[in-house]
Amino acid sequence: MYWNKPMETMPRENLERLQLERLQETVRRVYQNVPLYRERMQKLGVAPEDICSLDDVRRLPFTEKTDLRDNYPYGLFAAPQSEIVRIHASSGTTGKPIVAGYTAHDLQVWSEAVARCLGCADVGREDTVQVSYGYGLFTGGLGLHYGVEKVGAKVVPTSAGNTHRQLMLMEDLGSTAVACTPSYALMLGEGLRDAHFDLSRLKLRVGIFGAEPWTEGMRDEIEKLLGIKALDIYGLTETIGPGVAMECLEGHSGLHMWEDHFMFEVLNPDSGEPVPDGEYGELVITTITKEGMPTLRYRTHDLTAVIPEPCPCGRTHRRIRRLRGRTDDMLIIRGVNVFPSQVEAAIVGIPGIAPRYLLVVDRVNNLDVLEVQVELAPELVSDEVRAVEDLQRSVSRAIEQVLGLSVKLRLMNPGSIERSEGKSKRVVDNRSLIR
Ligand code: DLL
Fold first, then answer.
1. pLDDT above 70 as % of the chain
2. For residue 392, how far is its CA from the centre of ligand 1 (angstroms)?
3. How far apart are alpha carbons 308 and 51 in whole angstroms?
4. Alpha-carbon gap, residue 274 to 348, rounded angstroms
5. Cα 65 to ligand 1 centroid, rounded to whole Å
6. Which atom of ligand 1 approaches the CA of 241 most closely?
7. What integer pLDDT is reported at residue 149 of this predicted model?
8. What is the Cα–Cα distance from 337 to 360, expressed in whole angstroms?
9. Among 69, 190, 227, 422, which one is least packed by beta carbons within 10 Å?
10. How far apart are alpha carbons 433 and 339 in whole angstroms?
């Protein structure tokens, strides 16, 4: 089902003409209003008038997560504060989050993008959509929420957590669709299985799952446990939130990127040169309709490939493959972005602790578990149980405060964490993506 047929099926030629106009407008806007972009463009010797074709996007500077961090909180905003009506945020590499600002127009664009995603899942006026992504600074809950309202479906804003209540409401309210992270979808499914629940009592038909990497194996399991079709939705705070790209029921593979709002490139992460269609590279996104905080050539560090073949659904917006992983070291644990350097920042300076650590990530009962191994300083090898217990508590608290996530802390004997002469290995990720 299309939400916006003329846009979703627009001939490529027209779509590309529209993209160019919008790109030019965005470049003018950031050049005028955002010192960082103006200075970078001047350094590269490129002015807004030089953007004469879509290929000229490659003349523009890249934007990185660090640029958002360094300009925290409002430095990359391109609209006056009086026009900003919403803020969202996601965690970054330090204690400070990445902040995104939206004008009223941006919120329209966002709900339009999510409405198209819901159309891809055949969700319309007759549906009841349980939004079990977290509500708040995270873009998942509110992002889906306003898209559901836009298509005229009924939204049940349960937010994440409280599995028992989620399942009760799902049955009682007759939810036909659910939106949450794939790992939470598995938990919901297992809740049903463990309760020997008769699936025919549910009206659930489709799930809209994203915010973290998942696999075909996980899709199969979710579909079996919940008795639904499971579809992948992609997005990130820096470019808008969920709704940048979405799988459709017909194609069932590959996510349509809404190219009238987001221009994308797939580049070799080392050289910055485009990779041929079909080959994996880093996804780089330029927003072309955002006002509050447009981003030029944002390096997502997410790995994907363009699917060159047209989709049987008739949408002309190109598809990217399911996101394969990241080029940097950001981990996503239970939907929370975690950088190893955050742990380092938390433990450095705690008396009795050496700045040696290792993050071990596992998936236990389909939930991510983060174990943080931290080395004791040689001077503190205390046999005194109370002293070690106190240290255990204060180090856990310090780490949990920075990450916003509960962790399993293991204090290790001095020298027991492996050393390396080159780059240190900070992470062991045992979550098997091929399940
Ligand atoms: O996770 C936005 C979102 C909410 C997307 C709900 C989909 C559904 P951030 O917290 O900024 O925003 O995290 C963005 O999450 O760069 C990817 O690494 C990862 N990610 C998001 N969706 C997917 C997906 C939201 N479908 C980061 N597959 C992105 C794999 C995903 N990774």
1. 96
2. 32
3. 25
4. 40
5. 14
6. 2
7. 98
8. 15
9. 422
10. 19
